[in-house]
Each structure stands twice: as structure tokens, then as C-alpha cells.
């Protein structure tokens, strides 16, 4: 299942996550933002259970922002799991 979420409060525009039927991350693609860092994060998340990734990423901030691209990934994963 593939789910796309429009990001809010960060430089990146959107996050697309693809999960297996049992909640394992197959891929994460973030449009915009810090390209190299987000490619690295996406590579590290591949193969993890979505719940584990959410626990690690949710609530992380970027500078003075109340969110971050990793936090937005966590929100996209939560929304995908709820579908």
C-alpha cells in the first residue's frame, strides 16, 4: 500500500510511504527538503516495522520549528497504518 501526505511546517513538500500488508516499510520518498539526508533516512527506514520507525522519529524538531522532515515521515506512517 502506498500513501502520500502533504507535509506541513517544513521545507519538504510531501512524503510518500509504501508499506507491506503487515506494516513493514518498503520505501519512503520525500519531495523537497535536504535531499541527501532524506535519502539516507529513507534507506535506513526500509525494512523496519512502521511502528518502530514512528517511535524513533515522531516529535523530532528542526531548529526552531515544532516539527521536522523525520516527524512528517512519522505522521505519514501513522496515517498510512490507519488506512
TrEMBL record:
The keyword Nucleotide-binding applies. Belongs to the ribonucleoside diphosphate reductase class-2 family. Pfam families: TSCPD. Residues 5-81 form the TSCPD domain. Its EC number is 1.17.4.1. This is ribonucleoside-diphosphate reductase. GO terms for molecular function: nucleotide binding; ribonucleoside-diphosphate reductase activity, thioredoxin disulfide as acceptor. It is an enzyme of class 1 (oxidoreductase). It catalyses: a 2'-deoxyribonucleoside 5'-diphosphate + [thioredoxin]-disulfide + H2O = a ribonucleoside 5'-diphosphate + [thioredoxin]-dithiol. Keywords: DNA synthesis, Nucleotide-binding. One of its GO terms (biological process) is DNA biosynthetic process.
